[in-house]
Amino acid sequence: MTSSVRVVQPGVPDQSCLARLLGEPGLPVEHVTAPSILVDGRYHTAVGVTSDSFDDLTKLTVSQVRITALQAYASRPLGNVLAAAFGQWSTQAVATGYYGDVTKIIHLADPTDADGAVQEDTGRTLARAANRLDDYQGNGVGHLREVVDRHRETIANPAPLSQARLKTLGKKISNLRTGPYTLCLYRPEMALCGGQGAADFRLCRPHECKNSAMSRAQRALLELRRRQELRMAPILRRNAEKIAAAIPELEGEFAAMSDEVLATIAAEDLDDYVRDVLHEDPDPR
């Protein structure tokens, strides 16, 4: 019973001593008791989840628990749906009559909210590629070098690349995207994937496409996939053969390396990217 209600966030309007409560799926709210809430509440206070004290909580009614749970549901993403399902109401208008205007505090994200993060990632990706151009292979390497040369002054600036500068750089190369096995500088007239307006990585033909430049880590990952699909013959053998035919030198490049080494190469490249982000100068000036 003590796990039937969990305190997940303090500060529920008018019932701050309770914090927010979420009912266990399938457990009738009538079965939730004040003692069970006290036990769970004091535990979460002890471990630092909430700073509220439950010492003054002596009595709870079913309606108090019910409305508090509704507020918790309603304040979550798509909370109006969760709350309506919890209360078994037929319309949102009926539900709002029970849990009030909690949904007004919910931020409904707009796709453009992520533009800054995408631009920052794009700028960082190009800057990283510029520092290891000799690592890249594929029919799009020439175009990648042209793009790097075009922005060489920004990339080579001795001042640290702040988030603001990375975003500015990213805005200028909005067609650059990182796929599972390639860095794509998308140009519709060159795209072998046939993507309309953007790369379609489901149909990507890395290395062959003139938009594609593959890092060593991406090639290692593709070779790992080729080996795994070859072992799953005959189900995926044709996929493995297509990869080998498209990039004949792939198998030879990593012939002396085990699957574990290939996986390590790919993982270390990702770790290196994360380190770049964490050690980046956050000063936007």
Supply database-style keywords.
285 residues, 2 domains, two-stranded antiparallel sheet, 12 helices, 5 strands, disordered N terminus
What characteristic shape results from the CA principal axes?
Answer: elongated
- Mean model confidence by pLDDT: 76
**How far is the first residue's CA from the last residue's CA?**
54 Å
How many DSSP E strands?
Answer: 5
The percent of residues in helical segments reads 40-55%
The total domain count is 2
Provide the gyration radius in Å.
27 Å
Please give the order of strands in the largest beta sheet: 3-4-5
Spans of at least 5 consecutive residues whose pLDDT stays below 50 are 1-32, 281-285
Largest sheet: 3 strands, antiparallel
Secondary structure layout plus pairing:
Blueprint: E1 5-7, E2 21-23, H1 34-46, H2 62-74, H3 79-87, H4 92-99, H5 115-130, H6 141-150, H7 152-156, H8 163-172, E3 176-178, E4 183-185, E5 212-213, H9 216-231, H10 237-246, H11 249-253, H12 259-278
Antiparallel strand pairs: 1-2, 3-4, 4-5
Helix pairs in contact: 2-3, 3-4, 5-8, 9-10, 9-12
